[in-house]
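Hey team,

Filing this mostly as a record. A colleague (T.K.) asked me to run one chain through the structure pipeline before their review meeting, and I want the input and output archived in the tracker in case anyone asks later how it was produced. No errors, nothing strange. Just documentation.

Input sequence:
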Amino acid sequence: MFARTIVAAALAGGFATAAMAQQSYDLTFQSSDPSGSAAYKVQEAWAEHLTEMSDGQIKAKMVPAGSIVEYNETLDALGAGILDGHITDSSYFTGKDPAFALIGNPVGAYSRPEELLAFFNEGGGTELYNEILEPYNVHFIGPAAQPAEAMASKIPIDGVDDFKGVKMRAPEGMVQSAFAMAGAAPVNLPQSEVFTSLDKGVIDAADVTTLATNDSLGIHDVAKHPIYPGFHSLPLNEVSINKDTWESMTDEQRAMMEQSVKDYATDLIATMRAKDSEVAEKLRADPDVTIHDWSEEERKKFRAFGKEQWKSYADQSGNAQKVFDTLTAYLESQGRL
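Output structure:
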């Protein structure tokens, strides 16, 4: 994990030398992922990487979801200094401002995690998110993301039109509304009931999680037409820190933090994509399973439904409208709307 080029290693060494006489930090970051999960293991490796990279000037420790506060309370805990930082899905804070839903998981916006990273790194997303977070006394260091969630299905679904009349499990809110616009009949079901509901024919398809995780749950034993790579749900995995702590750091220390988060984003993608690829190879070798990879044209059609949902959220707050305007302008500039 966190293999670096010679240039990156040299930069890290330079950072550490500059930091040697500076204030040291002992930071606790809470994850929204459970202990032992693949994503959490990558986050633990990031904390070790940051500590090593800074020559111990910035010591970071990860704790799993719920260790100090509930998963949807970390934003307030950061602002109050109860936590130093978090790595989480930004949409958990939608109740505070609809902007968090739009910036955290705009349904259909991205097909690959690199597209999400590009919006934040090149399309104005990072600057805008920090503007939204400032009143909470929180600073957004940088974005990360896992590969898009796959769709489990018992029937062939090769495009938007194939969703007409399909009974499917989808989470409440933006995702469910987008599938309804596509003609599906979405229902609420806990993840624990997805396998049984597919097996018994209660539903035909399900928005669950990544291809590898779905496979680990045995879902492909009963739903033999997965849609992969995914097209609908690819949430932001944000790395943020208490703003007072951030502002107390030197430029060199902040640069180390930012570089470490870029390294984390790269490693998270590689780790989770490798798991998905391994499962995809296994499924392609199974004569009873057919993987359905949507064309860019069909992905764009679904993105149009997503955009309608984005508009409904944009109308609910000034910040949400700013996210909508920035995101749609960027996607249009990339030819993806």
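Quick notes for T.K.: The mean pLDDT is 92. Residues 251-284 form the longest helix (34 residues).
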